[in-house]
Design brief:
Number of strands: 33
Helix content: 10-25%
Radius of gyration: 25 Å
Length: about 625
């Protein structure tokens, strides 16, 4: 069995996703999966990324409903879908959603739903979610009809909006192509839009029930909730014949681009809980040779003097730099707290090269309409850090995600660098959604630069599993290795999928000029090697280890842009190592093999053969001729 046919090697689990059902109505096509619509296209153009009916719990986790009585009717000129989705909540509460989806050639697509609970049902959100794509849409014109009937002409945000760009929505219209427009009408409640690029989702999300209203809320027993989405596509060239199917697969073309820069340093995050395992694997640490170790310290997690003793021992066997990441409780004065931490640090003879400091409350998100939590001024916290750690470089930002950094913009004048993380399973955890988050990364880095200019920037730790949940009380446990949003472990981190995601991540942020990029730990559920509680032998390297080692080996080298004819499928870049040949780094971010054709690039070992095959989620580095 090859890796391409073995789900465990690809995904770290033998459980595969159910393939979608392709539906069509004339030139309109869509994929029906798990009760919802994905990749709604008109001809070859993407109209909407998704239309979904979602139910979220009090921690913003998404219910996976049981679908019953599913009936799909695909006809020559259209389709219809009927089903009932059942959600079971705490204390035996229940919710049933009766769904009907219809589309006819040349007519509107209609997605209607009626939710009814016999018991009453608590939820943070229950209703439709519409995703607009970002590539080719960001910054482009749109027309918004409000619930009062007024219409305004505006634009999709280009830089990422921290708050909702559009509220009180009834309909939104945009151009799909120069000749095709789409209107999405939303009935049954008041909708608003958030810029999901904040969370690295590759979409603008229009959702039901404004966030300014209280949540969680309760759906009363016996009271039906009815909503309907109507998608109408206008084609000014409707008389011109066009196929509803996507053209047959062609080779992906890679060619050198104009942009270039310096590869970032590569970091590994180390927590006190993983310090002993990290020290035991010090030979692996030397083999990977990361430029930076990011040590995490949180007094609220009972981290104390022992943590610094462990950090000092690890630093003694590490040839690179180190940064201490401090979660400041802020129960007493910031100066008193940081001076206590400094005393513990000096007592252990631990001497980091830099310190990142952030108040504990800033790890939690403050959604629109919510009250900001009590917190000392950040200027006071940063001043205390400079006092307690003289001569050490101080960084700030957010230990959570770009969302929080965008909403609470830190005073950066006294900081040596800005930092934040991202996570790809905040809202969805299917394979396609996770890989699509790579599309949002250049928008994130460009938005950071718009706020902080040329201030040095770092990103990470950014991994598929979630290390903290700013949007609820906890991350989700995942003992059975499922694809679960907001989970603190994810099987794909262990497979080729995880390695492909990491290399795709690095390729997507090269243009940002990052100082350091951290994509993993050494051990544990975020690590490069397997732990004691995993199916493979303890210490077994994950595919991700090769990717991080490659990036570490090229840190500080020059990179050159490599243009892909389809960046949703294959990403690539070129590195130049002094005294050695250039290397082409490629990654296939899809589950299908891809044919690659090189233009103006010649391989050292195959100068006459510029056609390659990249297997599913393959990461490849090849030497180039000068």
């Amino acid at each position: 069995m090859t890796a391409d046919s073995d789900p465990f090697q690809l995904y770290g689990t033998r459980e595969t996703e159910t393939p979608p059902v392709r539906l069509s109505a004339g030139k309109l096509t869509t994929d029906f999966k798990d009760g919802n619509l994905r990749s709604i296209r008109y001809g070859a153009a993407e109209v909407l990324r998704a239309v979904s009916y979602l139910v979220r719990d009090r921690d913003w986790g998404t219910y996976a409903p049981t679908i019953r009585d599913l009936r799909i009717d695909q006809r020559e000129d259209g389709f219809s879908v009927r089903y009932v989705a059942h959600c079971t909540g705490p204390q035996d509460t229940a919710l049933a959603i009766d769904v009907q989806i219809t589309a006819e050639a040349g007519e509107a697509l209609i997605f209607s739903a009626e939710a009814l609970s016999a018991t009453g049902f608590e939820t943070n959100r229950c209703g439709f979610c519409i995703l607009h794509p970002i590539i080719g849409v960001a910054g482009m014109p749109t027309s918004i009809e409000h619930v009062d009937g007024n219409r305004i002409d505006t634009h999709f945000p280009d830089l990422i909006e921290p708050w909702q760009p559009f509220k009180d929505m009834r309909a939104i219209t945009h151009s799909v192509t120069p000749y095709v427009t789409a209107e999405c009408r939303m009935e049954g409640d008041t909708f608003e839009m958030e810029d999901q690029r904040n969370w690295s989702d590759a979409s603008y999300k229009t959702y039901v029930r404004p966030l300014a209203l209280p949540w969680p809320y309760r759906i009363p027993a016996g009271e039906p909730i009815r909503q309907r989405i109507i998608l109408s596509v206008g084609d000014m060239q409707h008389s011109v014949a066009a196929s509803a199917t996507i053209a047959a697969q062609r080779s992906i073309t890679l060619s050198p681009g104009e942009k270039s820069g310096t590869m970032p340093a590569i970091g590994l995050v180390i927590t006190p809980e993983e310090a002993e395992a990290t020290l035991a694997a010090h030979s692996r640490l030397a083999e990977i040779a990361p430029q930076e170790l990011l040590f995490h310290f949180d007094p609220d997690a009972a981290h104390g003097a022992d943590a610094f003793n462990s950090f000092a021992a690890i630093s003694a066997v590490h040839a690179g730099r180190s940064t201490l990441e401090i979660v400041l409780p802020c129960r007493v004065s910031p100066l008193a707290e940081v001076q206590h931490i400094a005393t513990l640090m000096r007592g252990a003879c631990f001497k980091p090269d830099a310190i990142i400091i952030s108040p504990a409350v800033d790890r939690q998100s403050t959604p629109p309409g919510s009250k900001w939590p009590e917190c000392p001024p950040l200027e006071e916290i940063y001043a205390a850090a400079h006092t307690a750690f003289p001569g050490i470089r101080i960084g700030g930002g957010m230990l959570s995600y770009f969302t929080e950094l965008n909403r609470k913009r830190v005073p950066a004048d006294t900081l040596g660098f800005i930092t934040h993380c991202t996570n790809p399973i905040v809202h969805a955890a299917d394979d396609l959604s996770v890989m699509q988050t790579l599309e949002a990364l250049p928008f994130i880095t460009r938005s950071v630069r718009a706020i902080y200019g040329n201030k040095p920037c770092r990103i990470g730790p950014s991994t598929i599993p979630m290390r903290q949940n700013p949007y609820g009380s906890r991350t989700m446990d995942n003992p059975h290795g499922k694809r679960i949003a907001m989970a603190n472990s994810d099987p794909r981190h262990n497979g080729r999928f995880g390695a492909a995601f990491a290399l795709g991540y690095a390729a997507s942020v090269l243009d940002a000029g990052l100082e350091c990029l951290t994509l993993s730990a050494l051990t544990g559920s975020f690590g490069l090697i397997a732990g004691d509680d995993e199916p493979s032998a303890p210490g077994t390297p994950r595919p991700l280890l090769d990717t991080v080692s490659t990036l570490s080996r090229h840190a500080g080298n020059r990179w050159q842009e490599c243009l892909s004819s389809d960046s949703t499928t294959v990403l690539a870049f070129i590195t130049t190592q002094p005294g050695r040949s250039r290397q082409l780094h490629m990654v296939n971010i899809t589950p299908a093999s891809q044919q690659i054709e090189l233009e103006k690039l010649r391989l050292l070992e195959q100068p006459e053969n510029a056609r390659l095959t990249l297997d599913a989620y393959a990461t490849v580095s090849l030497a180039l001729m000068d």
